[in-house]
Amino acid sequence: MRTTDELPIRLTEELVLLLLNERSGYLEMVPGWDFSCVMAGAVIADLALESRIDSDLDALYVIDPSPTGDSLLDPTLKKIAESQEALETQLWIERNTARTDQIVTTTLERLVDRGILKYESGGFWTLSHLVSRSGTYPTSDPNARREAKARVLSVILNDVIPDPRDAILVALMHACDGFKLVLSDEDYHDKAERIETIAKLDLIGRSVSAAVRESAVKPKTRQILLTKPIPKLRIVDILRQREFRTGNIPKAMCQIFRKHGPVVKLPVKMGKSPLVALIGPDTNQWVNRHGRFYLRSKDYIQKLEGAFGASRTMPGMDGAEHYKMRRALRGAYSRAALARRLPELISLCRQSIRQWTEGDVVRATETFQTHMSSQVSRLSIGVDCSDYVDELLAYEHRALVTLVQGALPKFMLATPKMKRARQRVRELQEAIQASHTSAQRKGKPPDLADAILELHRNDPQFLPETDLTFPFVASMVASIYLGSALGFAVYCMVRHPDVYAKVRREAESLFGGGREPKAEDFNLHTIDVAHRLCLESGRLYPVIPWQLRTVMNPCVVNGFELLPKTRLLICQTASHYFGDLFKDPLKFDIDRYLAGRAEHSAPGAYAPYGLGTHTCLGRQWVELQMVVNILLIAYHMELQVVPANYKLGINPFPTAAPNKRLKLRVAEIKNSV
Q1: Given 128, 300, 538, 612, which is the most exposed site by the fewest CB atoms within 10 A?
Q2: Which fold would CATH assign to domain 4-224?
Q3: What is the C-alpha to C-alpha distance for residues 190 and 205, in angstroms, rounded to an integer?
Q4: Strand-strand pairing, 273-279 and 567-571
Q5: pLDDT above 60 (res 519)
Q6: Dihedral of CA 359/363/364/370: which sign?
Q7: CA-based diameter of the chain, in Å?
Q8: How do the domains of the chain map onto residue ranges?
Q9: Which residues contact 237 (CB under 8 A, 6 or more apart)?
Q10: What tens digit of pLDDT does each residue of 592-634 get?
Q11: Would you say 174 and 196 are in contact if contact means Cβ atoms under 8 Å apart?
Q12: Long-range contacts of range 434-441, CB-CB < 8 Å, 24 or more positions apart?
């Protein structure tokens, strides 16, 4: 196969660029039958332009079966060449829609390789910095140096006679209503007749249009894809899994996968919709690559939003709105934002653990949740929320169980206790806003609350005042989850004295002799063991073991068809227990992250921070905060699990946390705090 630099810009690449909103940087792609036909037809059109195939009114046929050296085109060429049937162009386009996901993935990766697009975490693509202000982009093909949008608009608006390639491109754009994205309403209606005329100039373009038009109700490819029936689990299949009873959700779902496969229908419903689980590395990869086109999150989160008086929040947003919110807040969630306040983070951690004395026995979960929420609240929203933690957790938990899971009647959210908790939520918002006036924030480093309030001031329609409470509360709820993660990590460290000793040596190198390390001192060399400890703890005990989504467009995953409105339980952490990905997966082993092994780097293997567009925005912040806390705890204290024979139990709801029986004794203060 030829390298990307050796290949010309393909029609699929130009289509993707035409669908990119240059102002927002968001890729305007609407999946479905129309778009599948367009991408499939673009590949067949490129084969025609490469003189590998030709067509007439009756059939499409091969004139040169030799491979093009292009992985985007050759699988389709091979299938056509090997076929013994004389089929019309439209049917070949419909058959080629089975490759749509692969075509889209290859196209996006190729545009990144060319330096035209830049991939951003969460499954978003934006124009690269290599793109000039004029909008042109570099390419190795001199015939494609003019930007696709300029060429197409010139054909449409200036009555330029199109060459065959541009005529095909116009037809493809027209078939998926793409011109509504690149033309004003006035120009679109004014030039509708000319667009229609140009779209009919090429046979392949007409065939794509026919496939879209004639199959709008019942796509013919459903017969061709030969999808499999989804296995149905029984209640007894769930009850037989001991891991469900012990709270280890990832391990339990791994066992379900081994017996039933990657896509299974669970014996429960969410509302009136069936609940289907996606399990394993292949489905993880599918969600990462294609989830943004087929899945949405708002269905399960909107009732939780309503419990906090909000209607639009980042967890409940999808598409361009979600991307806009992430862009506005990513700086506040970044590692750099926390690194700038490293002395404050260290001080807050020491201030908290200073309260522990030799001989103290503490409940790990609630202690670490309060410990981390105090840090996060001061660093992200400028208010110490330690006194709010219990009410926040109780209200959020009750809202989840009542409104999302439907396990309790709605009146349970209106009990006197919940009303008091709801009042505390309002008090928290008032305290945050009161502490973030321009006068009080003068000279202070900007935090998350500053970013949220600035977004509200700049675009009150996008983020109205009614929606401010939820992002404040969400950051605090996330800090509680972070406390659970720290509890798991400390447990793992204490249970493995050799690791404990190595982490302490790293801590002594950083903090010993009264040193106050800087952000640059925390690199993968100086915090190697502590970092790998956190990675392994997150593998064995992820605090968010699954995600809920709703299918918004029909799709096929691992050969199983998922219909719109199907509720999905995406069990992204089940792969953490796959023996073919992680050697001895039940064993705690931080060496699996060494460069020579790097077991977590296999595609779809490691996903403690979620998948796709809703991957945790603060992942790098979390990693730094976790490591700093682990190092300081190891530096100042010798901890023991109480009782010594305690076996870790997990409380799985609403998210995973060590159960309340996990206690730690401060056996010795190693270095005075």
Answers
A1: 128
A2: yeast vps74-n-term truncation variant fold (1.10.3630)
A3: 22
A4: parallel
A5: yes
A6: negative
A7: 87
A8: 4-224, 300-550+609-669
A9: 256, 259, 260, 267
A10: 999 999 999 999 999 999 998 889 999 999 999 999 999 999 9
A11: yes
A12: 435/382, 435/383, 436/382, 441/382
CA 505, CA 495: separation in Å to the nearest integer? 17
- From edge to edge, which strands make up the β-sheet containing 567-571? 263-270, 273-279, 567-571, 547-551, 295-296
φ/ψ of residue 202, rounded to 5: -110, 140
Whether the pLDDT of residue 67 is over 90: the answer is yes
Rg (CA), the chain: 28
How far from chain centre, in Å, is Cα 6?
A: 32
Dihedral sign, Cα of residue 568, residue 573, residue 575, residue 577: negative
Rounded-to-integer distance, Cα 582 and Cα 574, Å: 12
pLDDT at 122: 62
Instruction: Share the mean pLDDT of the chain.
Output: 86
Do 4-224 and 300-550+609-669 agree at the fold level? no
- pLDDT, position 372: 92
CA distance 628 to 30: 43
Check residue 144 and give its pLDDT: 35
Query: Per-residue pLDDT tens for 211-248?
Result: 666 654 344 444 445 578 999 999 888 888 888 888 99
Contact 165, 198 (CB under 8 A): no
Does 137 have pLDDT greater than 70?
no
pLDDT band per the 50, 70, 90 thresholds, residue 498: very high
The residue with tokens 């489905």 is 283
Residues 6+ apart with CB under 8 A from 466: 309, 310, 311
